[in-house]
Amino acid sequence: MRLRSLLYVPADNERFIARAHERGADAIILDLEDSVRPEHRDAARKTLAAAIRSAGQSGARVFVRINAETAREDAGAAMGANGLYVPKASRASIDALATEVPNLPLIALIEDPLALLDVAAIAAHPAVAGLAAGGEDLATALGAAPDPDVLRTPKLLIHYAAKAHGKLSLGLFRSIADYTDLPAIEEAAKDARRHGFDGASCVHPSAVPILNTAFAPTPEEIDWANRVLAAAEANQAGAFTIDGRMIDAPIVARARSILSQT
Hints:
By secondary structure, the chain is α/β, with parallel strands linked by helices. 47% of the residues lie in helices and 16% in strands. The protein has helices at 14-20, 41-46, 48-55, 71-77, 91-100, 113-117, 119-124, 135-142, 148-164, 182-195, 208-214, 219-234, 249-260, and strands at 5-10, 27-31, 61-65, 83-86, 106-110, 128-133, 168-170, 200-202, 240-242, 245-247. The strands form two sheets. An eight-stranded parallel sheet has the order 7-6-5-4-3-2-1-8. It has a two-stranded antiparallel sheet with strand order 9-10. A hairpin with a 2-residue loop joins strand 9 and strand 10 (245-247). The relative contact order is 0.11.
């Protein structure tokens, strides 16, 4: 599953939903949680099936971010989606959802210290397809500011847990709430990819092309990977040299990984 960019769209905003499929995001996250007022959520659930069809009409995957308090009702309304974004994820909430909607992949949002300390077990659950941090919620739960220095360590712990269990790792080392600073988003996306993150979410369409570019191999990386694999095929030795650097099995595997992302 390739998810470089995931665009949040309020599930009750007909105008935004109507244009979601035009934004070029790999996935749309129809949000039933924080961006929808509590009194509007019942109505948003009733129109969710149509919103899912609309958002996915150009081929983007569609996820639904549910509410922890109404997870069962929200999940039941999201059956046409490609998966669920699960806020305040825990082993118990993931187990419950996996039983309720066994065919929907789950993206676990780690949003409190207890879940952070239990993140490896959450990542290991077979229903979990990926992990991300809910940066603002996590910082609030820690009594901290949601700045990059504060978020870096917990997001890396979540990232390590995801990778340890072969799951998608999604996020930036900053809050996505500050969506107007596009150069900072670009720098954060490049930094996240350097650490091995697969993609990130955003709350404004202007960030979508930035994420799509940052989380994709550069032409230089593709050229290097092709040369490495060509040389690996030609060489019978366990190690060889390209551009003055030793190439052995882990680096060949990295080259294959780069080309798999094109």
